[in-house]
Amino acid sequence: MAGLIGIRGLALTFTRDGTRTKVLEGLDLDIASGEFLAIVGASGVGKSTLLRVIADLVRPSEGTVTVSPPSRDAAPTPWCSRMRGCCPGGASSTTLPSASKS
Length: 102
Ligand SMILES: Nc1ncnc2c1ncn2[C@@H]1O[C@H](COP(=O)(O)OP(=O)(O)OP(=O)(O)O)[C@@H](O)[C@H]1O
Ligand SMILES: [Mg+2]
Known about the structure:
- Strand 1 and strand 2 form a beta hairpin.
- The chain has a single domain, classed as P-loop containing nucleotide triphosphate hydrolases (Rossmann fold).
- About 12% of the residues have low confidence.
- It is mainly β.
- It has a 3-stranded antiparallel beta sheet with strand order 2-1-3.
- The structure holds adenosine-5'-triphosphate (ATP) and magnesium ion.
- Magnesium ion (MG) binds next to helix 1.
């Protein structure tokens, strides 16, 4: 199967109230087109955060996420695409949350 999503060296640290929380670190992952993948782990390990980064809703501290082909119609979350300038709830916006960097 052709590669669809490629993740290299992904890291993300949140900073809230002066407290740094390292959620993702050194993550490499390839997801093929048509592949069924389950992301499992204890509560708080960063599963949802990883999906938000893949959906381009949260900016990683380090690393890259490549989605191929980068066309609008092939977006993994067409209902909420940064390129389309939309967000959940139907409100139009180009402002998306980003991780705090230090
Ligand atoms: N916007 C944010 N600001 C600061 N910390 C955050 C933010 N979002 C998530 N976190 C923290 O990042 C860590 C991972 O959260 P995440 O929601 O990705 O976990 P999860 O694996 O999806 O958990 P669950 O199984 O409970 O859904 C948690 O410690 C959480 O408190
Ligand atoms: Mg979650």
